[in-house]
Amino acid sequence: MSFPHLLEPLDLGFTQLKNRVLMGSMHTGLEEEKGGFEKLAAFYKERALGGVGLIVTGGISPNLRGRLTPHACQLSFPWQVGKHRIVTQAVHEAGGKICMQILHAGRYGYHPFSQAPSKIKSPITPFTPSAMSSRQVRGTIKDYASSAALAKRAGYDGVEVMGSEGYLINQFISSRTNTRTDEWGGSFEKRAQFPIEIVNAIRAKVGKDFIIIFRLSMLDLVDNGSTWDEVVQLAKWLEHAGVSIINTGIGWHEARVPTIATSVPRGAFAWVTQKLKQSVAVPLIATNRINTPEIGEQIIASGQADMVSMARPFLADPEFVNKAAANTPELINTCIGCNQACLDHTFSLKRATCLVNPRACYETEINFLPTSKKKRIAVMGAGPAGMAFSVYAAMRGHEVVLFEAKSEVGGQFNLARKIPGKEEFNETIRYFLNQIKLHKIDLRLNTRLDAKVLETEKFDEIVIASGVVPRELSLPGFDSPKVVDYQQVLTGQALVGGKVALIGAGGIGFDMAHYLCESESSTLNPDKWLKQWGIDKQYQHAGGLTQPEVENTDHRQVYLLQRKTSKMGQGLGKTTGWIHRLVLKQHDVKMKMGVSYEKFDDAGLHIRVGEQVEVLAVDNVILCAGQESNRTLVDEMKASGIPVHLIGGVDVAAELDAKRAIRQGAELAMRL
Question: What is the largest CA-CA distance in the chain?
């Protein structure tokens, strides 16, 4: 399949973009690291070389009070221009274009100096902002313009004004967060004056030949958000003010609706960009969960948008556009929307990277250079760790033989992809399989690596990536065929009844509960998914919200149990855990904490919670109580006298951690 619409140039009059792909804004954490701008330059340079039409940086504050965190990056003074030039020169040398995003956090600022239109605390930060005076509002507008002028001096091709996701500009626009009674509050015209004056001030400072993107919140997904008429009116005013492009913003950060997690259908929000296209002539960018060239092509070819924005997909694969242009989309390392190494890292103040591509943001530190000593390496296990190591080692020039006892590669990913909303794991398996073929790795399915093999073949190194097995519990009645583990259920070896108790409420327990309640994945049915989360596609309500409609397709009663007394799902992802908890609440899953397990018999599962004894009349018990390293044959391998290395779950069998497994495989491949 070719992608003519995706790869078509976009003429902005004073400049031309070589294709319709925008690398959306992502804060990497490099912005604040010592020597981080040199690393950031390498990061963006790879993406420019990879063919992307236009890059937008992570958010840079226009002043001190606008910072997201106390030490976050800002561009307010001439002496700060130099480090930005390192980035712009690297991108331009690679033939790319880059805009700097200007972002004022407003009440989302994670520090006591935050300011907002009104003194209203955000539900996701601990600090209450001070309300800006009219003079401070005017000063902030000037700060935006000054920051844009400095960005131009630094060599940026333009700026993106962050006017969505609930940050400062969004806070001025919405009556939810703007209760002012002066010239900056009250009517929509007054509330919208702030973004309009920012754009006017920037355009006056930078002139006509400079890209200004405005990221407009087209769908707030919060109560008392903007109405559709207000979105359209603001877009028209922005067009008149001289913006070059309008980017789509979806959802405030405090919204209780998922917008970028893997469970969100691909291209789920392109309809709202299309809805605006009939009202303005300025080019529009569609965003959120666009992760393949096929989806991008479809959105542009159908007239839903003029460009598509992809952020995390460029963490996963810097060569995304080049591979699409070469008509080899099967070689793209697809973003699975997991958030585990990118957003979860960002919100924990760590450097962002990527679960499926550990080189992301480590381009100067993780490289697979040609080996000076070619080795023949045996790898046991073709799960995420084993596949990753095999591919990276083969890239370096080693001869790799990959042994897998089962009939397919993928390991735990083959189970994960069966969970509703986690179908994207198919893409990672597809990617590694194609890399295995491309690098001529000797893949032997249905074959165990054992002493017999080592007697007949010579290897210089052995890498064991045999993964994990479910942990068993030795309790009265747990030898019943009605007590099964999660792997048996997901592989179809065990069928379960209408009432089920899950022991263990980590990631596996949550996934199993979802699987049992929603056998027909709403992720694969966008209209059903929009209804499930109460998103009003007709946009008859402010903020785009309506009453959710949830279907429990299997009508099961599920109990999710844990020994700990702590909050259920506390160990889930920082940016996705709330979604998993809400999904189970939608399906009326009963959650119990501080549970002791007594026995299982014909009456059901006998448990104790504190002093209270209870019998759950369930048909089945499913064990999700963790896992143990699959160390079968490890001692045998070590006895061979050949150097042995353990990676992935066989090394550490904590909560399933593909991020660590793939990274371990990459780091070992660099060393051998």
Answer: 84
pLDDT in tens, 435-462: 999 999 999 999 999 999 999 999 999 9
Given 144, 156, 167, 392, which residue is catalytic? 167
Does the residue 25 lie in any domain? Answer: yes
Tokens of 425: 């794991």
Burial class (CB in 10 A: 0-12, 13-18, 19+), 603: exposed
- pTM assigned to the model: 0.95
The C-alpha R_g of the chain, in whole angstroms, comes to 26
Residue 155 Rama label (left phi>0; alpha psi -120 to 50; beta) = left
Query: Scanning the structure block, which residue is given the tokens 């065990």?
Result: 494
- Going by the DSSP 8-state scheme, the letter that residue 69 receives in this structure is S
156 carries an active-site annotation: no
**Long-range pairs for 496-499 at CB < 8 Å and ≥24 separation?**
496/619, 496/620, 496/622, 497/618, 497/619, 497/620, 498/555, 498/556, 498/557, 498/619, 499/556, 499/557, 499/616, 499/617, 499/618, 499/619, 499/620
444 plus 332 within the same structural domain: no
C-alpha distances (whole Å) from 315 to each of 158, 174, 311, 661 are 22, 32, 7, 18
DSSP code of residue 72: -
Are the C-beta atoms of residues 608 and 637 closer than 8 Å to each other? no
Q: Would strands 399-404 and 376-380 be described as parallel, antiparallel, or unpaired?
A: parallel
| Residue whose C-alpha is closest to residue 424's, from 665, 658, 669, 664 | 658
Measure the CA–CA gap between 650 and 652, rounded to whole angstroms. 6
Cα–Cα distance between 536 and 543 in angstroms, integer?
9
pLDDT in tens, 327-374: 999 999 999 999 999 999 998 889 999 999 999 999 999 999 999 999
Q: Note down the domain range covering 590.
A: 472-519+554-625
Query: Do 621 and 665 have their domain in common?
Result: no
User: Does residue 662 share a domain with residue 559?
Assistant: no
Render 554-571 in DSSP notation, one character per residue: T--EEEEE-S--SPTTTT
Q: What does the DSSP 8-state code read for residue 601?
A: E
Regarding whether 265 and 414 lie in a shared domain, the answer is no
Average pLDDT over the chain, rounded to an integer: 95
- CATH for 560: 3.50.50.60
Q: What is the pLDDT of residue 655?
A: 62
Q: What is the total count of domains within the chain?
A: 3
What tokens does 348 get? 């924990």
Sign of the torsion formed by the C-alpha atoms of 366, 368, 372 and 377: positive
Element (H, E) at 58: strand 54-60
Q: Which of 315, 308, 272, 316 is nearest to 7 (CA)?
A: 308
Residue 240 has a CB neighbour count (10 Å cut-off) of 13
Tell me: do 47 and 190 sit in the same domain: yes
Same domain, yes or no, for 384 and 330? no
Residue ranges of the chain whose pLDDT lies below 50 = none
Q: How many CB atoms lie within 10 A of CB 134?
A: 11
Whether 353 is in a domain gets the answer: no
- Domain presence at residue 533: no
Neighbouring residues of 47: CB distance < 8 A, sequence distance ≥ 6:
23, 55, 96, 314, 318
pLDDT digits (tens, 9 = 90+) for 397-437: 999 999 999 999 999 999 999 999 999 999 999 999 999 99
662 contacts 354 by C-beta, under 8 angstroms: no
Distance of CA 90 to the CA centre of its chain: 26
